[in-house]
Amino acid sequence: MKKILIAGTNSGVGKTTISLGIMQALTKRNMEVQPYKVGPDYIDPSYHTFITNRNSRNLDSYMLDDEKIKYIVSKASKDADISVIEGVMGLYDGIGIDLDNCTSSHTSKILKAPVILVINGKAMAASSAAMVLGYKQLDNDVNIKGVIVNNVKSKSHYEIIKKAIEEYCNIEVLGYFPPNNEFSLESRHLGLIPSVEIDSLKIKFNNLASEIEKYIDIDRIIEISETQEIESNFKLDSFVKENFSKGKSIAIAYDKAFNFYYRENIELLEKLGLEIKYFSPLKDSEIPEADYIYIGGGFPEIFAKEIEDNKSMRDSIIKAHEKNIPIYAECGGLMYLGDSLIDQQNNKYNMVGIFNGTSKMTSSLKRFGYCYGQAKQNTVLSKIDEIIKGHEFHHSIFETNEPCAYTMIKTRDGEVVDEWDGGYSKGNTLATYLHTHFYNNLTCIQNFLSKGNK
Fold first, then answer.
1. Which of 290, 307, 398 is nearest to 350 (CA)?
2. Strand arrangement of the beta sheet that strand 387-394 belongs to
3. How would you label 56-82 residue by residue, b for 16+ Cβ within 10 Å and e otherwise?
4. Domains in the chain and their CATH numbers?
5. Over the stretch 5-24, which tens digit does the pLDDT of each residue have?
6. Mind telling me the catalytic residues?
7. Percent helix, strand, coil in the chain (nearest 5)?
8. pLDDT for 179-193, tens place per residue?
């Protein structure tokens, strides 16, 4: 089984650009490349998927235990030639200071994946070896097999860094990449702009792959990636059999405004017998006839005018709610289901109106990071006191007098560091800022499906 994990020394070191370039270079060699992203991010995987034409998968150790991560990889990679895993933040960065708590390093160990470490070589020479040696020695069980030096302008500078790292660290240096603004990707308040919003990506990524081939030894990366198979004891068969819903369907919002979904969430719904009916809150006149509705996150604040203009769609969702059709909405979906939305220019737009309240964009992050919700009442996903793990990442606040359905709790190094109320439940509709992976608590989906059978 061929697999590599591309990690960085820190966020912003260039691992996403390098990862995308390597994925494209391998794809141009007619290899089936299965991409993955460590952590909960939705946007980087959208670029992976665009390049490889295979759905990128999130490997998140907060929401998923080791066996579930191995299950996802063993299933998704079985017909791939090589798996490329993009790390998150720095190699050892996760929750707190525990090196095995939601880190790229931990993911590499459970998957037995060789690590290629991306470093910033700007204004460094032999000191680069000291940095790499620290990463090597911090955890001897992490298999750092290669280094890529980013942000180096000349080959002569690169050769000094390469010689130092290989002599003092005994780790192979696989190449370098010069600074090039042509390959920078547009961003906004939540990070990179999703791939569905950007034209001409194919040309950009083909050019990136050509440059990667010039400076980085792709043949050697393929050789390094040859590792042992992995197996998992996690199984879905009995759960699917016990909860199969024949003849049911679910309407899923998917367009430029709403596109944040973990692929396994949708595939699990399919395995459970539900017909997937995608719809656009921006373009379609009304929601398709369905037994359930799922509205993921995204950027409704960017497309608020189009959302407001599509009154017939908003009315159809209100009618579905009034018919007690189970509706589950995450983050941008919560913003959509409120009365109104105020963007960063202080423009106010009408939304669906299931929940009384206004989503208001702010200039900074309001919530960021992993947390879990403990249900204060029965909802379409949870019975009272049940727990859902996930993450929040948003610049908006939802101003409302609606009662909250969950107590949200954030912990670090075994201690509670923050606690607040969140999520809103009305009838068979639940909307929350929490993004979750369904595998973390399959009971949630069992609860959700049961609401549609009543």
1. 307
2. 387-394, 367-375, 406-412, 415-422
3. bbbbbbbbbebebbbbbbbebbeebbb
4. 3-224 (3.40.50.300), 237-452 (3.40.50.880)
5. 999 999 999 999 999 999 99
6. 331
7. 35, 30, 35
8. 987 776 665 444 555
